[in-house]
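Table 4 source record.
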Amino acid sequence: METGRFAGQVALVTVGGRGVGRAVCETLAREGARVVSFARNAAEVRAVVDAAEGWGTEGLAVVGDVARYADVAGAAEQLLAR
């Protein structure tokens, strides 16, 4: 779905697996953003991306800890590669 105020945009949401982060991911996806959910729990970020794709937008699940430089750098690499 390329409609909505964030159509064509990419949103990287840290702690995007649950709570406020998940809600932000869902809202952005409903508005057309491609959502990158970044959190430590693989099942949670995958569930967020599955929901985003259910609304017709792309998603990317990235597992990592925002406090670790290597994880953040890896997330950026995954995002840019996709």
